[in-house]
Each structure stands twice: as structure tokens, then as C-alpha cells.
Specification:
heterodimer; A: 217 residues; mainly alpha; MetI-like fold; 10 helices; 0% strand; B: alpha+beta; Rossmann fold; OB fold (Dihydrolipoamide Acetyltransferase, E2P); 2 domains; 9 helices; 18 strands; globular
Chain lengths: 217, 327
């Protein structure tokens, strides 16, 4: 059972860290895409929307090629490490968080940014207020990003290598046990992974629904 | 002390189309200027330029001699802008009013005092702890105005603040607005497409047509001497007709003199104009009769008078003493 706890802890660490970094990248990027009037914004939005649909195994392959010892970032020695897996999961979750943030902010009344400017908001005050107004979709973005990161197996296998005691996470354990024909073990990992996803999403959903109820009451 | 506005050679284009062209406009401190015009006349564009939300394509928009668009945030914070939609945030009413004060670094007790005073001024202090989303349209408009007033702006921009309110709410809202503006410490630019609002609240009225100034005058002059048919219709004349008039001012029949005529000055029964009654309907305290003569004519008859029937041919006269000569 210690091994299960260890793998569970590793999964949570990798996916929560990746989600936090992806939120730090995706929310500002989505905000820029929602508010900017510059040329190229539409093309970037298309890239982000495409990124939301890229299979995780393709992301894993791309990251592995970059981090491979003979690759352009090979000297960083990140292949088959948790940090390498976090990089891959950031690339998986960030487009999703960027896209949902953009859509959430674009769903606000279109005149709202100008109203806030007219009330004297500086750029930071404006953005923070828009995030508060769009808090429900922003929390949905974080939940979707975490869900995508914690459930993916393609990049975790390719970039992490499923090394016991080092880079094995819940999803790669399930695949490994199914491969060995040990379905009981695979089901234990699957149940725990579901419980992890449920717990974290339950917390975020509770916050989200309270925010929504507060706004509507 | 209100702000002084100066516009020179202002041109604003959008999508390759010119939407505003104002060669010269000066608004002295403390004046209430109403901007009247139909949809698409450039009214909101003018307000956005004054608020510094847009830079003019050409020319200058200055407040107290400072170009607005390049002015510092601190300078632009002297301008209050209440948009057509109240734009309240998902917070309580008091927090909505306090928020712009917080952005200006006002401490919490002072914020609350100022916000409550502003809500009091618009007769909505009792709503302070309500969620903004639970307010009716009229309440939300008052709160939006209170939020602008709380900033003690030197220039207040109002974009159709009574739009979307029913007649009773609108009347009450305008009463409160008029009383709140009474101290004249603020220069006010008030955009509307309703003449009655502009005539009631303004010192001068600027009529915009197709993005340009068609007429700029005090309310009495605007009503008594509209420069053309478009302005006459904008300020509420139901009829603009071309007639021939003799030396005593009697209408002889169709002709080349253009008159703006209130519907109440059109009489049915005798007169030199022949018309066919198109439609008769009941209006507020009157019969409203639409007729086709050489031009469409509207008449308002008292309720105690029997109106003509649709399809009936009638004689019509115009009380030129209550009409305005346009050309």
C-alpha cells in the first residue's frame, strides 16, 4: 500500500504543479486574447483552440524529442524526470485553460472593459475585476486543466518512462498492470485516481458554485 | 468647478467610414449640454472621445486645455461616465459605488461615507446592501449614476441614462437626476435621443445629424427656430409641411414655405387643405389622426371631440400662430 500512496502522491504533485503553472500561463494569455484588438489575435486564438484538441501522446512525443539527451534541451537532463513530466502536462493543460479563459471573458458584457476604464481603473485593476466577474468560467478552466493533466497517460509514459519509485504515476501504473494482466491492482489504482480527481474537483466545484450562487442571489 | 471642454477639427472614422466631424465646440465650466440625435448620429462616439476611451482620427479633444486621450490616468479620473447600460458588477450596491473610490486610494471609512452620500443623493441609500443583480432597471440606473457622482467628477458624461425605463420610472429618475445636478459643480454632457429629456435638463442642446453639428442653441431657440426639417422632427414636431401662406399668415394650400407644426395646431373641419383620413387611434388624453394630404399630416384632437373616420375626406387648417417657419 505504501507503493500506492507513493504513486498517488507523485500523481497529485505532478498534476497540481502542472495545473498551477498552466493557470499562471493560461489565464493571462486567455485574457490577452479576449481583450486585445491587435492583428494576429485571431490566428493565435485558432492555435490555442487547436492546442486544446492535440492528443496528449503527440505532446509527449514532442516534449520527449526536445528533452532527449541528444535533443536541443538534452543538456537540461529532464527526460524521465518529474520536472519533464510537469513540462509536458503544462503544455497539455495550458491551451485548455487559455481557451476557456478567453471564452469566459468574451462572454462578459462587451462594454464592461470600457465601463471599468471610464470608472478610472488602471490596467491591473481592470484585469483583476474582469477575472472576478468571470470567476465561474475561470474555475471551470482550472478544473478542466487539472482533469486533463491528471488523466493523461501518453506524455507521462513517453516523457516520464514509468520508472518505479521515480516517475511512475497513477495512469502509467494502470497501463502497466493491465499489460501484466493484474486487473485487481489496475482497478485499485483506477479507483484511487478517480477519488483523487473527484476530491480536487469537488473542492473546486464547491468554490465555483458558491461564486455563481453569490453572483445570482 | 466644472471642466471646460474644447473640441477642434475633430474627425472620427470607424471601418473607413467617418462617424463624427465636429469643427468647433466649446463647453464652458458648469454647463449642461445635451446631445440630441437619432441612432448612429455619433452621440456615443462623442462621449467616448470626451472620456478618453477613443483617440480622434484627427483634431483635438481637450478638457481644461489638456488633450484627453493622452492625459494621465489621474487626470482622466476627473471624468465620470454613466453608460447606457448600468454596467453594475456582481457585488452589493455599496461595493459597486465604493470600488472606483478604492481604485483612487480612498480609505475604507471615507469610501463608505462618500458612497452612502451618493446613493442618498439619488434616493437609493436603502439599497446599499442589496446585490446589484437583484435591482430593477430604474434602481440600477440610479446606482450607476450614484457611482459616477461619488467620484465628484468635474465632467459628467451621461449616455441615455433613462433609456429602457418605463414612463413612470423615467419620470422619477429624471426628477432625481435634475435635483442631483442642481449644484452646477459639474460640467455635464448628456446624450439622448429624446427631446423632452434634453429640453428639461440642458442649458444648450447640440443636435447631431450624420456625425455633424446641425444646430447648437438654447432649448427655447431650438424649439422656436429649428434650422431644418430633421431638427424639427428630432425635437418633436409631428408635422413638417410645405404650404403657401398669404400676407396675414393664413395657409392657402400646398406651396413652397416649410412649416414645422405641432399636431395640436392642425384642425380638422374647415380649411384650405384637403386630406384623406388614414388612421385614427386613441393616444394619451387625445385622438391621434393621421391623414394624407399633399404630405402626411398628424392631428391631435381632444377626447371630447368626435374624430373623423378612416377613409373620410376632410378639410384641414393649420394654426400658423403655433407653427414655426423653417424656410
Amino acid at each position: 500500500m505504501d507503493a500506492v500512496h507513493e504513486v498517488l502522491g507523485r500523481s497529485a504533485l505532478v498534476s497540481l504543479t502542472a495545473t498551477a503553472i498552466a493557470v499562471a500561463i493560461g489565464v493571462p494569455a486567455g485574457t490577452w486574447l479576449a481583450l486585445a484588438h491587435r492583428r494576429g489575435r485571431g490566428a493565435l486564438a485558432t492555435v490555442v483552440n487547436t492546442g486544446m484538441a492535440v492528443p496528449t501522446v503527440v505532446v509527449g512525443l514532442g516534449v520527449a524529442l526536445l528533452l532527449w539527451r541528444s535533443g536541443p534541451l538534452g543538456e537540461l537532463d529532464l527526460i524521465y524526470t518529474l520536472r519533464g513530466m510537469i513540462i509536458a502536462q503544462v503544455l497539455i493543460a495550458a491551451p485548455l485553460i487559455t481557451g476557456i479563459t478567453m471564452a469566459g471573458l468574451q462572454a462578459l458584457p462587451p462594454e464592461l472593459p470600457d465601463q471599468l476604464r471610464a470608472l478610472g481603473a488602471n490596467r491591473m485593476q481592470l484585469v483583476v475585476r474582469l477575472w472576478i466577474e468571470a470567476r465561474v468560467p475561470l474555475l471551470a478552466a482550472a478544473m478542466a486543466g487539472f482533469g486533463h493533466a491528471v488523466s493523461e497517460v501518453g506524455s507521462a509514459t513517453i516523457v516520464g518512462g514509468n520508472i518505479h519509485g521515480q516517475t511512475q504515476v497513477m495512469t502509467t501504473s494502470i497501463v502497466e498492470n493491465v499489460g501484466k494482466g493484474d486487473f485487481d491492482e489496475a482497478l485499485v489504482y483506477a479507483g484511487i485516481l478517480l477519488a483523487l480527481a473527484f476530491t480536487i474537483n469537488a473542492v473546486l466545484t464547491s468554490v465555483q458554485q458558491r461564486a455563481a450562487a453569490w453572483a445570482q442571489s | 468647478m466644472g471642466a471646460v471642454l474644447t473640441l477642434r477639427g475633430v474627425r472620427q472614422a470607424r471601418g473607413g467610414r467617418q462617424v463624427l466631424a465636429i469643427d468647433e465646440l466649446d463647453v464652458p465650466a458648469g454647463e449642461r449640454l445635451a446631445v440630441l440625435g437619432t441612432n448612429g448620429a455619433g452621440k456615443t462616439t462623442l462621449l467616448r472621445l470626451l472620456a478618453g476611451l477613443e483617440a480622434p482620427t484627427a483634431g483635438s479633444v481637450e478638457i481644461d486645455g489638456v488633450p484627453v486621450h493622452t492625459a494621465s490616468l489621474a487626470f482622466r479620473r476627473q471624468v465620470g461616465y454613466a453608460t447606457q447600460r448600468p454596467g453594475l458588477l456582481s457585488a452589493t450596491v455599496i461595493r459597486n459605488v465604493e470600488l472606483p473610490l478604492r481604485w483612487r486610494g480612498v480609505d475604507a471609512p471615507e469610501r463608505r461615507r462618500v458612497a452612502l452620500a451618493a446613493l442618498e443623493r439619488l434616493n437609493v441609500a436603502d439599497l446599499a446592501d442589496r446585490k446589484a443583480v437583484s435591482l430593477s432597471g430604474g434602481e440600477a440606473q440610479r446606482v450607476s449614476l450614484a457611482r459616477a457622482f461619488a467620484l465628484a467628477p468635474r465632467l459628467l458624461l451621461l449616455d441615455e441614462p433613462a433609456a429602457g425605463l418605463d414612463a413612470e420610472a423615467r419620470r422619477a429618475f429624471l426628477d432625481d437626476l435634475e435635483s442631483a445636478l442642481r449644484d452646477r459643480a459639474t460640467t455635464v454632457v448628456h446624450v439622448s435621443h429624446r427631446a423632452d429629456e434634453a429640453l428639461r435638463l440642458a442649458d444648450r442642446i447640440l443636435v447631431l445629424v450624420g456625425g455633424g453639428i446641425r444646430q447648437l442653441s438654447d432649448p427655447a431657440t431650438l424649439v422656436q427656430r429649428p434650422v431644418d426639417a430633421t431638427v424639427a422632427r428630432l425635437i418633436g414636431y409631428e408635422n413638417v409641411v410645405s404650404v403657401a401662406i398669404d400676407d396675414s399668415g393664413q395657409v392657402l394650400g400646398p406651396g413652397r414655405t416649410t412649416l414645422a407644426v405641432w399636431a395640436s395646431a392642425v384642425q380638422i373641419g374647415t380649411g384650405p387643405l384637403r386630406a384623406m383620413v388614414e388612421r385614427v387611434s386613441l393616444g394619451p388624453g387625445r385622438w391621434e389622426v393621421v391623414m394624407s394630404a399633399h404630405e402626411t399630416l398628424q392631428a391631435h384632437l381632444p377626447l371630447d371631440q368626435t374624430p373623423p373616420q378612416a377613409g373620410e375626406r376632410v378639410n384641414v387648417s393649420i394654426d400658423t400662430g403655433r407653427a414655426t417657419l423653417i424656410r
